[in-house]
Design goal:
The protein is built from two helices and six strands, in the order βββαβαββ. With 132 residues, the protein is an alpha+beta fold. The strands form two sheets. The chain has a four-stranded mixed β-sheet with strand order 3-6-4-5. A two-stranded antiparallel ribbon has the order 1-2.
């Protein structure tokens, strides 16, 4: 695991809620492409169900991190692409099963008109730094 420094609210910046403003680390950089709610056979998990999709996406992120020799403790940034901001509570709940509040990475949430297929409600990408 990389040594990460989290700065939740730099001077003059409003307090962070559900993310950390600044995360710094040294080591190898890992970029994980946006993950979708697909199982290992490429089948959609949770059609129309934001909670099921969020849990599958975080499981896919976990598997990608593991393949890179990383864990969620190494994640410095998450980007959430959602078709409806109403899905954010489901994403936060799924995230909480993998990342405790005191280890929250930097994050951005963007509502998009569509994802690659209409049945996908969200796509989440991650950036991590792992020790050399």
């Amino acid at each position: 695991m990389s040594e990460l420094t989290r700065i939740p609210a730099p001077d003059g910046v409003a307090p962070a809620t559900a993310y950390t403003h600044v995360v710094m680390g040294t080591g190898r950089f890992v970029a994980i492409s946006g993950q979708l709610a697909l199982d290992e056979d490429g089948k959609l998990v949770g059609e129309g169900d934001a909670t099921a999709q969020a849990h599958q996406v975080f499981e896919n992120l976990r598997r990608c991190l593991t393949a890179a020799g990383a864990t969620f403790d190494d994640v410095i940034k998450l980007t959430f692409y959602v078709t409806d901001m109403a899905h954010m509570p489901a994403i936060r709940t799924a995230r909480a099963t993998h990342i405790p509040d005191d280890r929250l990475p930097a994050a951005s949430a963007v509502q998009v008109a569509a994802l690659v297929r209409p049945e996908f409600l969200m796509e989440i990408e991650a950036f991590a730094v792992i020790a050399e």
